[in-house]
Amino acid sequence: MLFETIVVGPLGVNCFILGDKQSNEGMIVDPGADCDMILAAVSHFGIQVKYIVNTHGHFDHIGCNRTLKEKTGAQLLAHKEDVPFLVNAARSAQKYGLTVENSPEPDAFLTDGMKLELGRRVIEVLHTPGHTQGGCCLYLANEKLLITGDTLFADSVGRTDLPGGSHDQLIDSIKSKLMPLPDDTVVWPGHGPSSTIGQERSFNPYLNE
């Protein structure tokens, strides 16, 4: 399986490129910025992008949605609760002195338990509201790999002081949806370094208050 991380934009978002090497089907997760760099990586790996997936709708994670959708023809997927963030991204970014293009609306909505297929690979959607109401994680059980967006970080959790955020809801999402996963599942967050479920279960201060 192809799994590549590209750090994009001024806020250092982890954009992920996944691909099934037999079918050449691929997925881009959280293309926040640096569209040309992402497209160059897609070309280098020779994958056909089937899905563009947003773990949530904040502007720093969705800035290349429109460009990548136009260039690849891929389906854009996000949770319906975060559509207002996508279509108003330019205004949100402006508050931070940044420029981002508004995203088109999703072609389909992510739902809890939804299965996305890339050739032989199956990615399960876990709805984990708290950072935003539409926040989702992506779980590849066979690869023991979990993409957590801004829900769970190494030794931290997502902020909940933005519109739609709830700390209690976030902690409940993490404990009920993510912590039951195997200890050796590798956690790939939306910013910063990777971790494991076992590491976070044992040492994340926000989960052991």
Task: Report the end-to-end length measured between terminal Cα atoms.
Answer: 37 Å
Low-confidence stretches: none
Number of domains: 1
Strand arrangement across the biggest beta sheet: 1-2-3-4-5-6
User: Structural class, please?
Assistant: alpha/beta
H/E series, N to C? EEEHEHHEHHEEEEEEEHEEH
InterPro entries: MBL_Glyoxalase_II, Metallo-B-lactamas, RibonucZ/Hydroxyglut_hydro
Cofactor: Zn(2+)
Protein name: MBL fold metallo-hydrolase
Keywords: Hydrolase, Metal-binding, Zinc
How would you portray this structure in words?
The chain has seven helices and 14 strands. With 209 residues, the protein is α/β, with parallel strands linked by helices. The protein has one domain: 4-Layer Sandwich (Metallo-beta-lactamase, Chain A). The chain has a six-stranded mixed beta sheet with strand order 1-2-3-4-5-6, with helices on one face. A six-stranded mixed beta sheet has the order 7-8-9-10-13-14. It has a two-stranded antiparallel sheet with strand order 11-12. The protein is globular, with a radius of gyration of 16 Å. 45% of the residues are buried. Residues 190-209 are annotated as: Disordered. Pfam families: Lactamase_B. Residues 12-191 form the Metallo-beta-lactamase domain.
